[in-house]
């Protein structure tokens, strides 16, 4: 069901400092910050050859990751994101298998402008999983 690893998200206390480490110390391609008010975060994507990192920091006191940062003041891994070709089908299959979808169960628009769902970490060995719908490209011929 799951496709490729889309990204690993890391919560950081200082987005600018984290971006500078990845750019200057590790030589990675670091993009510009984007506020995502609907998710309560500011993110910067770091592009790697085989995937991306999503550096995240709270956007306001009501951010859903503010508690994470309070519990982990130095930051840490927040979630991993896998691509799926059909999010509705994936959700039905997961729920039928006993997995829980966070929130109201309806897809939201993620940081890439695509539909996403989050799966309860207690159902996946303590790991928060994001599923992002990415339609396979049509192959010519």
From TrEMBL:
Keywords: Cobalt, Isomerase, Metal-binding. Its EC number is 5.1.99.1. GO terms for molecular function: metal ion binding; methylmalonyl-CoA epimerase activity. Residues 4-134 form the VOC domain. The keyword Metal-binding applies. It comes from the Bacteria. The keyword Isomerase applies. Coiled coil: none annotated. GO terms for biological process: L-methylmalonyl-CoA metabolic process. Pfam families: Glyoxalase_4. It is an enzyme of class 5 (isomerase). PANTHER family: METHYLMALONYL-COA EPIMERASE, METHYLMALONYL-COA EPIMERASE, MITOCHONDRIAL. Belongs to the methylmalonyl-CoA epimerase family. This is methylmalonyl-CoA epimerase. It comes from Devosia nanyangense. The gene is mce.
């Amino acid at each position: 069901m799951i496709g490729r690893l889309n990204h690993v998200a890391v919560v950081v206390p200082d987005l600018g400092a984290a971006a500078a480490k990845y750019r200057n110390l590790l030589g990675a391609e670091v993009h510009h910050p984007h506020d995502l008010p609907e998710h309560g975060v500011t993110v910067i994507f770091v592009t790697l050859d085989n995937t991306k990192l999503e550096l995240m920091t709270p956007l306001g006191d009501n951010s859903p990751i503010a508690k994470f940062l309070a519990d982990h003041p130095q930051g840490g891994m927040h979630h991993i994101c896998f691509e799926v070709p059909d999010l509705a089908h994936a959700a039905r299959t997961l729920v039928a298998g006993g997995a829980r979808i966070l929130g109201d169960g309806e897809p939201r628009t993620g940081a890439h402008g695509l539909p996403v769902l989050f799966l309860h970490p207690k159902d996946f060995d303590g790991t928060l999983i994001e599923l992002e719908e990415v339609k396979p490209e049509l192959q010519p011929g």
